[in-house]
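I'll show an entry:

:::
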Amino acid sequence: MMPAQKKAAMTFPKNFDPIYFADSPWSERVQAWERQNISHGFSAGNATLIRRLLDDDATGLRVVINITPAALEAMLREDNYRNIYEHPDIGGQSRAPSKDRKEVDEKLSIGPDTYFGAVALGGAGLRFYGTYCMVLSAKFVDSDTQLFDRDSYEILLPPLADAHVTPKDISRLKGKWQIDRVDMAMLKVLPEVRHDSRLVTSGAVSSMVLRDQEYIEVHLHQKFRPADLEEIRESADDAATEVDILERRRAGLHVRAEEAEWVRRRSHIAQLMDEKDIHHRVVTMYGRGYRWV
């Protein structure tokens, strides 16, 4: 009986990282990584520094949700954020969950009352999903909010879609905001850091916590409103593009109709953010010490 149970518990492929995919709490996985790497160069100092950065109350990890200009405009106007199951009207079209979205949510035991976000340390979030990055107040996020260590759509693809990977295996990739967020982020960052020559910088840690579409996913079960936001961020690229368009228009140079409309919408959104008393910042560099315009 015991050998069969042990075999059933080890269904991840053998070439998977045995520490990362261990059937143990995230904190124990971090400790296992540190025991294995503690004597390697700057690894001990980096582990201490990374934990300090991630766990800082004022500038540490936050839940971010990226949103398109049209969706943000609707949210601020209606004072209400709606997920895809609530059929939000975006750009004049009603949106609905895809077949893949429903399948993923079923496999993860989440549903229509879930609001998706990502864990971030500074930066402008997941720009793939929208140029505006909403940052939830740290006090708003429930301590038992579920985390998933990657984009949940990955469970539809090999090797996680393999028939031998069970729901119990997938549950090893989950965590809770209060007790696991720092350890999950550390185990994401530590193996990527070069420990042989120097201590890591806050900017490097920020970019490794959330890079492109590699991130820790957040499954919120709290409906939030603009008043629950700590701030809204956007990248310096968009701010620079707006300045360029305005300067060309002031100089009497040609500005395309779509460029003029893009600037008009940004101006309207800025006005709505001001009316809602939402702090709006432009990211000019990553890291805990990022500068803002």
Observations:
- The CA atoms of residues 64 and 135 lie 5 Å apart.
- Residues 2-232 form one domain.
- The longest helix spans residues 257-275.
